[in-house]
Amino acid sequence: MEGNLGGGVNNQIEIETPNNITIKGILGLLMANTEATDIKKVISLGMGDPTSYSCFHSPDVAHDAVIESLASHKFNGYSPTVGLPQTRKAIADYLSRELPEKLCSDDVYITAGCTQAIELALSILARPGANILLPRPGFPIYALCAAFRNIEVRYFDLIPGKGWEVDLNAVEALADHNTIGIVVINPGNPCGNVYSYPHLQKIAETAKKLRTIVIADEVYGHLAFGANPFVPMGIFGDIAPVLTLGSLSKRWLVPGWRLGWLVTNDPNGTLKNPKFVERIKKYCDICGGPATFIQAAVPRIIQQTEDVFFRKTINLLKWTAEICCEKIKEIPCISCPYKPEGSMAVMVKLHLPLMVDISDDIDFCFKLAKEESVILLPGLAVGLKNWIRITFAADPVSLEEALGRLKSFCQRHSYQQNDHH
Ligand SMILES: Cc1ncc(COP(=O)(O)O)c(C=O)c1O
């Protein structure tokens, strides 16, 4: 059928797709560029899905809870679009453990993963002329979602030499009366940063000064294994309103279950304005939220997952981050300015002048995929050209193998090696 979309002589309207790079898009192209053999299996350190490695498996109690919920036959119907009451309550109680002011169920909106929480946040804040401040490097879904909502994106830098802290001067310089929010990802993807209490407080104070809000992406909440503990941004909700976004995906290692949340942390009640609440609810009616039986399993998942499960994940991530940093030190043409202290990824800088025939990060990643069947994410995909993002949520053996191949690739393509020939 000849339609109005995507070209053709009958076109009445021009439809443009935002030309943002997506992580999935670029990883798909890289994957297509590999030449796997029996000896050299493809190893991907590109995606943030740890479940592709069997050492990162979800807790049994989570499976039991979902099976129980499904077997009960009680959760085959629609849930309220803001989420089941017991699910909202379970998330409110879970997040309240670390907050000075307790959340209530009405503060919580259940979404299909943190991705839909991002979409919900941007959609409810969007208005003509709006702009949003995003971190660079960052998570590309924000810019893509902003493009669909006609929200102008303004980037502030994260500073590698200062633990990838937010450049607050840049934030102040970028903001104006149309700024709808400042996005903060902590623990950070792609940098592995875990911000200190004082830095988070300063961010909240900056938001207050600029009369805007903080959108706190805590999808990696609690996945911190360095000097700084994880501090939820919601603690500073009395300084500036905070929309906290999160999900079960990373901490419970179930990204495919699509269970996330958007939470208003706002003791002063700015976000509780009835009109704004109505707007959130209406948008939830569009979204629909995650499967009811998964939602119904959440109270048991939250209450019964034992600490030992969380500790095991943290220890494993700490170990694999260590392996990553040690191996990177052996490779002169890449360097890591900040040892990751949380999340599942680290950014490394490419030193192109040391390399013979590599033009940029994209070229690097495509040649690496082709020659070594190792997938890494070009920094451009997260906003930093000529950097690379390495995901270390992999089993230690595969990680060592992949980084070994990275090392020989770099040796082959660096000047020192060629000079000997
Ligand atoms: C910073 C950040 N926010 C949001 C998401 C999306 O989370 P979910 O898988 O729960 O949709 C991710 C996923 O990798 C992420 O890294």
Distance between the termini: 60 Å
Percent range of helical residues? 25-40%
Q: Helix tally? A: 13
Order of helices and strands: HEHHEHEHEEHEHEEEHHHEEHEEEHH
Mean pLDDT: 94
Return the structural class.
alpha/beta
CATH topology of the largest domain: Aspartate Aminotransferase, domain 2
CA-based shape: globular
Q: What portion of the residues fall into strands of 2 or more residues?
A: 5-15%
Q: Provide the CATH superfamily of the largest domain.
A: Type I PLP-dependent aspartate aminotransferase-like (Major domain)
Number of domains: 2
| Heterogens | pyridoxal-5'-phosphate
Find the count of extended strands (DSSP E, 2+ residues). Answer: 14
Present the secondary structure layout.
Layout: H1 23-32, E1 43-44, H2 60-71, H3 85-96, E2 108-111, H4 113-125, E3 131-136, H5 141-148, E4 152-159, E5 165-166, H6 168-174, E6 179-185, H7 197-209, E7 214-217, E8 242-247, E9 260-265, H8 274-287, H9 292-304, H10 307-329, E10 334-335, E11 345-350, H11 361-372, E12 374-375, E13 377-378, E14 387-391, H12 396-412, H13 415-419
Parallel strand pairs: 1-12, 3-4, 3-6, 6-7, 7-8
Antiparallel strand pairs: 2-9, 4-5, 8-9, 10-11, 11-14, 13-14
Helix pairs in contact: 2-9, 3-9, 4-5, 4-8, 10-12
The chain binds pyridoxal-5'-phosphate.
Description:
This protein has an 8-stranded mixed sheet with strand order 2-9-8-7-6-3-4-5, with helices on both faces. Strands 10-11-14-13 form a 4-stranded antiparallel sheet. Strands 1-12 form a two-stranded parallel sheet. The chain has 2 domains: 23-57 and 308-419, Aspartate Aminotransferase, domain 1 (Alpha-Beta Complex); 60-304, Type I PLP-dependent aspartate aminotransferase-like (Major domain) (Aspartate Aminotransferase, domain 2, 3-Layer(aba) Sandwich), CATH 3.40.640.10. The termini are far apart. The protein has 13 helices and 14 strands. It is α/β, with parallel strands linked by helices and 421 residues long. It is globular and about 65 Å long. The structure holds pyridoxal-5'-phosphate (PLP). Pyridoxal-5'-phosphate binds next to helix 4. The site of pyridoxal-5'-phosphate (PLP) has 13 residues, from helix 4.
